[in-house]
């Protein structure tokens, strides 16, 4: 089974050599490594050029195209049956590829396989934040499909993807600057089963800059847009009409949905609810059962843990009548 490892890098002089080294040191040997330099202006290109290994293919783009397009270009250059993604500042355990190869051989129905991670960072990133990110990305395999609209299934850099299914899904959408990987997972969930090795095979580097409020807002908005867009294409598809939904969330969440998401997605929001939810729960259920609304979209608000089992008790089905975002 030939593997194509694809890495996109932009101004990654601090860590790219270490990341490449962790790939070239793998115990699994039947792979090629395609490194796409996305128009770097630091020493990244010199570092890439200095590495001599017959498995390494270097693609030097003349200008910055963005991570999604750079990764697409790398996949187009690939020749393997499977694509492994690797971020340019992370590290893979030496037996990562071997373990994942055995995993997909044992489960030929899978089209994607991720893995568990450990997080590390510089001194300005607190251990509590590292553990928080690990917990968010180390969800077990059994709930991946059910929670696909609320939780990212795995860290991007851990993924093994069937090349044929990657192409069928249309690859990464360059319209997303942050959530392009999450959008790809939602497209691939529609094409086949996705698995996850229950073992840490990847070390994910957390930067303090990625934890800024600006980045958090942009990431939140992009994630919501791709969730709503993809569910409207599949789970909420209504032919030529736009799905009619009720949105439940906090004031900030509803404002983002109203001003930054709904205007850009094929959806008609009938109402936003951010207070007094307990007295409105039955009306939400009635609206869906009567056909006045197609679904309820629940943001990650404090009442969700109570409302989800209530909706289920009333006969509503998750990812059909209500969605947790």
Write the layout of secondary structure elements.
Layout: E1 3-9, H1 16-24, E2 31-37, H2 44-50, E3 56-60, H3 67-76, E4 82-85, E5 91-92, H4 96-106, E6 112-121, H5 127-137, E7 160-162, H6 163-169, H7 180-189, E8 194-206, H8 213-233, E9 244-248, H9 251-261, E10 268-273, H10 281-289, E11 295-298, H11 304-313, E12 322-324
Parallel strand pairs: 1-2, 1-4, 2-3, 6-8, 9-10, 9-11, 11-12
Antiparallel strand pairs: 4-7, 5-8, 6-7
Helix pairs in contact: 7-8, 8-9
Rg is 21 Å
SS summary, helix count: 11
Largest beta-sheet details: 8 strands, mixed
Distance between the termini: 37 Å
Beta-strand percentage range: 15-25%
In N-to-C order, the SSE pattern is EHEHEHEEHEHEHHEHEHEHEHE
Total strands: 12
Characterise the protein shown here.
An eight-stranded mixed sheet has the order 3-2-1-4-7-6-8-5, sandwiched between helices. It has a four-stranded parallel sheet with strand order 10-9-11-12, with helices on both faces. The mean pLDDT is 91. With 325 residues, the protein is of the alpha/beta class. Helix content is 36%, strand content 21%. It has eleven helices and twelve strands.
């Amino acid at each position: 089974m030939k593997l194509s490892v694809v890495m996109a890098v932009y101004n990654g002089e601090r860590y790219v050599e270490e990341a490449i080294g962790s790939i070239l040191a793998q115990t699994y040997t039947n792979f090629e490594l395609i490194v796409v330099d996305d128009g770097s202006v630091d020493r990244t290109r010199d570092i890439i050029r200095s590495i001599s290994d017959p498995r390494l293919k270097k693609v030097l783009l003349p200008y910055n195209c963005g991570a999604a397009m750079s990764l697409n270009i790398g996949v187009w250059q690939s020749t393997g049956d499977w694509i492994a993604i690797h971020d340019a500042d992370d590290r893979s355990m030496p037996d990562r590829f071997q373990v994942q190869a055995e995993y997909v051989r044992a489960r030929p129905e899978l089209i994607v396989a991720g893995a568990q991670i450990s997080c590390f960072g510089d001194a300005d990133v607190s251990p509590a934040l590292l553990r928080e990110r690990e917990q968010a990305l180390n969800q077990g395999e059994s709930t991946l499909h059910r929670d696909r609209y609320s939780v990212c299934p795995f860290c991007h850099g851990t993924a093994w993807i069937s090349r044929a299914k990657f192409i069928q899904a249309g690859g990464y959408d360059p319209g997303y600057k942050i959530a392009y990987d999450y959008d790809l997972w939602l497209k691939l969930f529609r094409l086949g089963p996705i698995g996850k090795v229950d073992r840490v095979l990847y070390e994910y580097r957390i930067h303090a800059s990625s934890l800024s409020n600006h980045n958090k807002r942009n990431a939140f908005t992009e994630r919501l847009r791709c969730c709503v867009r993809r569910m409207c294409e599949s789970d909420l598809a209504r032919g030529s009409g736009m799905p009619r939904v009720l949105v439940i969330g906090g004031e900030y969440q509803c404002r983002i949905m109203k001003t930054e998401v709904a205007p850009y997605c094929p959806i008609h929001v009938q109402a936003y609810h951010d207070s007094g939810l307990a007295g409105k729960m039955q009306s939400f259920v009635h609206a869906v059962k009567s056909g006045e609304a197609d679904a309820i979209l629940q943001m990650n608000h404090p009442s969700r843990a109570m409302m989800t089992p209530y909706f289920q008790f009333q006969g509503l089905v998750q990812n059909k009548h209500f969605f947790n975002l």
